[in-house]
């Protein structure tokens, strides 16, 4: 490794992950998949594999306590980490919560946080089995580690997509980013006018604000797939935007991807926010993260079978040969590469 100074910003998150994954390390025969997917996959003696994942939320980076009710934050943290288990086609079972908190925080605030955590636990059928609480001098940090299980024959990786598979996405995209834009605007207004007693009326934006503060992981998709005895060829949850997630599936599978912009699902409420902000709603959908929707690939035959039983998904593209690259057909009929979108 070179001793030359290199900032994390210069290599980015992906570059940093690549670098640390290249170290020589101890390996266990029971590890089927380590770094490089939504969750680690560990082989057991039975018919199921163990799934392990974790997530960390840092105050000032991942959440702003000014406009984030802590019971919403608790729910969102659990949703985010169990979503990784769903992305492997598994079901979560247990969760550990680690909390580093400044003394300036009140007991009531931490109580609110855990109310949200336990509420999500009931919804996702996940038990909080422990964790750690420690002091922190500056900002609150919450991390969660989740344990889940999946039938060995059903585990779904990012790398299994086949040429010709349909690229599918649940729900709609861009709403979480739209909600964030509204919350940031209201915070700026509050800071400029300095009225601590002012409570903004966000009822008009309830749909998008809720999608930012309390997104819901796609338990219903995994249940529907199991009920219909379907296993996607690849899958990933939407945490960094559609373009990023499709690129991950295509890259891991050694394929290219072709998206249809006109087919990408966007809620009317999200469009209204983008119009109000005078911003491009397509960029919300393509690059907005935290929706916790699921991107998955199915054969054409399986799509025809599944759409009769599960309505809440859209076909937004198809997997193509790697040599065809990563492209999108715009609503106007032009074809552009993913690189041109960034």
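Q: What amino acid sequence fits the structure above?
A:
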């Amino acid at each position: 490794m070179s001793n030359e100074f290199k900032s994390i910003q210069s290599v980015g998150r992906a570059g940093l992950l690549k670098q640390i994954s290249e170290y020589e390390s101890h390996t266990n025969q029971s590890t089927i998949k380590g770094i490089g997917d939504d969750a680690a996959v560990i082989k057991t003696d039975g018919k199921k594999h163990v799934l392990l994942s974790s997530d960390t939320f840092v105050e000032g980076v991942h959440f702003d306590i000014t406009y984030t009710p802590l019971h919403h934050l608790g729910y969102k943290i659990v949703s985010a980490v169990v979503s990784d288990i769903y992305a492997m086609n598994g079901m979560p079972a247990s969760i550990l919560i680690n909390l580093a908190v400044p003394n300036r925080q009140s007991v009531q605030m931490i109580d609110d946080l855990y109310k949200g955590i336990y509420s999500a636990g009931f919804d996702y059928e996940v038990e909080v089995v422990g964790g750690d609480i420690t002091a922190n001098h500056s900002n609150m940090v919450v991390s969660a580690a989740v344990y889940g299980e999946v039938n060995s024959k059903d585990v779904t990786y990012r790398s299994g997509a086949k040429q010709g598979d349909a690229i599918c996405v649940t729900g709609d995209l861009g709403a979480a980013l739209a909600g964030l834009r509204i919350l940031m605007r209201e915070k700026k207004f509050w800071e400029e006018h300095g009225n601590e007693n002012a409570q903004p009326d966000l009822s008009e934006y309830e749909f998008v604000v809720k999608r930012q503060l309390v997104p819901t992981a796609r338990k219903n998709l995994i249940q529907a797939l199991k009920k219909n005895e379907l296993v996607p060829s690849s899958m990933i949850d939407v945490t960094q935007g559609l373009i990023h997630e499709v690129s991950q599936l295509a890259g891991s599978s050694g394929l290219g991807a072709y998206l249809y912009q006109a087919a990408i699902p966007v809620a009317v409420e999200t469009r209204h926010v983008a119009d109000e902000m005078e911003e491009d709603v397509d960029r919300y959908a393509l690059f907005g993260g935290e929706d916790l929707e699921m991107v998955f690939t199915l054969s054409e035959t399986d799509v025809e079978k599944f759409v009769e039983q599960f309505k809440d998904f859209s076909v937004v593209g198809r997997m193509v040969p790697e040599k065809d690259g990563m492209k999108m057909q715009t609503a106007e009929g032009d074809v552009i590469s993913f690189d041109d979108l960034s």
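Q: And what stands out in the fold?
A: DSSP finds eleven helices and 13 strands in the chain.
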